Amino acid sequence: MADMTQNNPQAISAALRHQLYDHVLLAWETKQVQINPVRFSKKAISEQYGLEVVGKKKLAEIEQLLGQRGVQNKNRQEQIFFYYKDSCHQSLFKSLRDMVAHGHYGQPQNGWVAIFHCYQGPRDKQPRVRIFGQCKVSSLRKLIRFLDTASTLEEPKR
Asked: Which residues touch 63 (CB under 8 Å, ≥6 apart)?
């Protein structure tokens, strides 16, 4: 299992925490999210946002990837790996919602977000990894806007 001590949402700016709360958690809980209806394409997301997003239907595959790569890879590649049941877009957004709700994210380097969320389901003997990875803060904002077509999340004004 990965080291969860890297998860420290307080290390991220208050503005970003506020954005994640409003545009992920609160939007999901108040049913304001409109999941992008296009078919999931990791190639399209990679080409458009420079972010590798990989969904797996088996929790064991996610845990195997975590063992191979770790939460933060040494090459500073932007990658998010997640477990999905049905719709990839909806499962990814729900995993981001869970990550925000439980504070399972941190800032390993300035301008980056590390993600690591586990959940212990009723049939699980121990918590299972649902989503992990790292990306630039700007890429995370773009991904949220892509997944939720109703999102008004914007880049901060400079």
From this structure: 128, 129
Phi/psi of residue 116, each to 5°?
-155, 110
Q: What is the pLDDT of residues 54-112, one digit of tens each?
A: 999 999 999 999 888 766 666 678 999 999 988 999 999 999 999 999 999 998 888 89
Query: How large a percentage of the chain has pLDDT more than 70?
Result: 91
How many angstroms separate the CA atoms of 150 and 145, rounded?
Answer: 8
Neighbour-count burial for 111-134, b at 16+ CB within 10 Å, e otherwise: ebbbbbbbbeeeeeeeebbbbbbb
Taking the CB of residue 110, how many other CB atoms lie within 10 A of it? 8
